Amino acid sequence: MSDAPVLAIPQEGWGELVLNRPDRRNALAPDSAAALREGLSDLLAGGARVVLLRGEGGTFCSGLDVDLFQGGAGAAWAADWTGFHRDLHDCPAVVICALERYAINAGAALALGSDLMVAGEGAILTVGEAAIGMHAPMNLAWLRLKAPESVAAQLALGAGRMGGADLHRLGLAWALVPDGGVQDHSRSAAIRMAGWPGGTLAGIKAALRRPLPQGGDVFDAVQARPGQGGAAPSRVARP
Questions:
Q1: How far apart are CA 221 and CA 227, in angstroms?
Q2: pLDDT 10s digits, 209-236
Q3: How many CA atoms lie within 13 A of 82 on its CB side?
Q4: Fewest beta carbons within 10 Å, which of 43, 56, 139, 212?
């Protein structure tokens, strides 16, 4: 297998974006953010409508590789890291995170930045920057977008661990599955969703992300853009 920090693996209508440092429990290296941006761009250019974000070797992401960041990664890392999260926010494809074992700090931001999270029953998500004197801007951004303040405070201020069952109960995880089945469940979902019609997913995701105009009407704000959704009604396919 390639020793690149991130792999982009195209599939039919979908793709896999793989954190590829299993010997370091997929801790992020200084070049990981740029590689994530490039990999996501390549998958989208190849027509992926769903992206499975996962870690190689049974662990999602243990955060930053502290040893490699001791000398300072410089402005390039910060720019690419923020840029990748903007890319995730604006990404027309649905991003599914396969959360295995743990997602710590920067890894938690990747999990929270996904549209749908499939968590293992024994998985743990930690937003622990406060306990080590660090800011947590990307985690805070996603928590502000996705969670009520009470839930965000438990994670960002409490700096504690939140297990898969609690992530599911609080609505941060889409599905809770046995630990050994996280990738299979996530992959099956990606394949199924990639087979849905045209730009429906992109149109719905864009409507969910579109901010309401000041004093605007929610029913106007969520109307699908031309070419994205709005097809004539049809029978719902059996799952």
A1: 16
A2: 887 777 666 666 666 454 444 454 445 5
A3: 6
A4: 212
